[in-house]
Write a structure and sequence with these properties.
Length: 334
C-alpha cells in the first residue's frame, strides 16, 4: 500500500474517535492494520489530486480553499468582458443583469444603477471559459466524478454599500435553488478576481453546516431592502462558529451546496468582483420540489424564466436544463 493511501486510512480512522483522544501521528508508513475504515462521503474515491488532509478537511468543514489557482491573465480577460457587458457593448442570450436596489452610481455607465451580478453567462464564450478551465475542472472532478455539468454561472460585482446595507448577501444554502440531487455530487467553485477581505465583503461560512439538511429560506426582513433572489436561511444558529474567507486574487474556494454561507457589506469605495460556477455530476437527476420548502424559489424562478424565454408554461427542471452545459465527459442524465 502506498504511503498516501496508508496515511488516508489512518486519518479516516480518526473520524470515529472523540476529538480529545486524537493525537498527531507520523505520516510515514504504518504497520498497524485497521479493522474499520468508513467511506468518505463528500469526495469521490478516485480523487487522487486531493491529499488525505484536504479530503478530511472538506469532510469536516464543507469547503476547501486552493491558493493562486486562476491566472492573472484569465482574470484580466474576465474583467474586460464584464466591462463590455456592463457598457452594453455585447448582448448575451439568456444573461440576467442584476442591479443593486440602492446603488445608483455604476462603474461604467453614468446615471445607472450599479450592476451587482451577471447571472447565467453560459452563452458568453469568454466568461464561460472560466467553467472549463482545466485547473478548475481537475478539482471539481474530485467532488462530482468525471462527467461534469456546469449548471449555474455568476460574476458577482459587490458594490460599495450606500449605507442601507444592501450589499450584504444573507446566509443561505445554494441547494435551496437547485431541483437536482444528490447534493453530495454538487460543488461550487468561487474565485476571487481581486483581494477579498472583511472590509469589502468576503464570504462568510459556517463550517460543518453542510452535514445538516436543507432549511427553509425566504427574503430577510432588512430595513434597507434586499436584492432580487437573495433568499436567506430562516433559522440557523447565530452562535455557530463562522469563518471569514479572506482571499487573494486567483484564490478559489470549493464548497458543498448545503454549506451555510453569505457575505457582509462592502465598506470600501470600490467594487468587489468574484466569478463562480456551480457544477454537478451529469449523473445527477431532477426531483420535484412540490410540497417542500423550495416551492417559493420554484415559483419565482418560473416567473422570471417565462418572461426570459417568452413561454407561458415552463417547469422548474426545464429552467435548469436550458442553462446546463457539459464541460467534461458525457451528459448522462441532467
Amino acid at each position: 500500500m502506498s504511503r498516501a493511501a496508508e496515511r488516508l486510512r489512518l486519518l479516516i480512522n480518526h473520524l470515529d474517535r472523540s476529538p480529545d483522544v486524537i493525537k498527531a501521528a507520523q505520516t510515514s508508513a504504518q504497520t498497524v492494520t485497521y479493522s474499520h475504515s468508513p467511506k468518505l462521503r463528500y469526495t469521490v474515491d478516485t480523487a487522487d489530486l486531493l491529499t488525505p488532509e484536504q479530503r478530511l478537511s472538506y469532510e469536516k468543514n464543507g469547503f476547501l480553499l486552493i491558493k493562486n489557482l486562476v491566472s492573472e491573465e484569465d482574470i484580466k480577460r474576465f474583467k474586460q468582458e464584464f466591462e463590455r457587458i456592463s457598457r452594453q457593448e455585447v448582448k448575451v442570450p439568456g444573461l440576467i443583469v442584476m442591479k443593486d436596489v440602492a446603488i445608483v452610481k455604476s462603474e461604467f455607465v453614468p446615471d445607472q444603477r450599479a450592476v451587482s451580478k451577471l447571472q447565467d453567462f453560459q452563452e458568453d464564450p469568454e466568461l464561460f471559459r472560466y467553467c472549463a478551465l482545466p485547473e478548475i475542472l481537475k478539482y471539481v472532478e474530485c467532488f462530482t466524478g468525471p462527467n461534469i455539468m456546469a449548471m449555474h454561472t455568476m460574476l458577482i460585482n459587490k458594490p460599495p454599500d450606500a449605507g442601507k446595507k444592501t450589499s450584504r448577501h444573507p446566509m443561505h444554502q445554494d441547494l435551496h435553488y437547485f431541483p437536482f440531487r444528490p447534493a453530495d455530487r454538487i460543488v461550487c467553485s468561487w474565485t476571487a478576481m481581486e483581494k477579498v477581505n472583511r472590509q469589502n465583503g468576503c464570504l462568510v461560512v459556517l463550517p460543518g453546516s453542510h452535514t445538516g439538511t436543507l432549511q427553509e429560506h425566504d427574503y430577510p426582513e432588512w430595513e434597507g431592502g434586499v436584492n432580487k433572489m437573495y433568499h436567506g436561511v430562516r433559522g440557523y444558529d447565530p452562535e455557530h462558529p463562522r469563518v471569514h474567507l479572506e482571499m487573494e486574487k486567483g484564490d478559489t474556494v470549493f464548497f458543498h451546496p448545503l454549506l451555510i454561507h453569505g457575505s457582509g457589506m462592502n465598506q470600501t469605495n470600490g467594487f468587489r468582483k468574484a466569478i463562480s460556477c456551480h457544477y454537478a455530476s451529469a449523473d445527477c437527476y431532477y426531483i420535484s420540489v412540490r410540497g417542500t420548502t423550495q416551492e417559493n424559489i420554484e415559483k419565482e424562478v418560473k416567473e422570471i424564466a417565462s418572461r426570459k424565454y417568452n413561454m407561458e408554461q415552463i417547469s422548474f427542471e426545464d429552467t435548469w436544463a436550458f442553462r446546463g452545459r457539459l464541460v467534461q465527459g458525457e451528459r448522462t442524465s441532467l
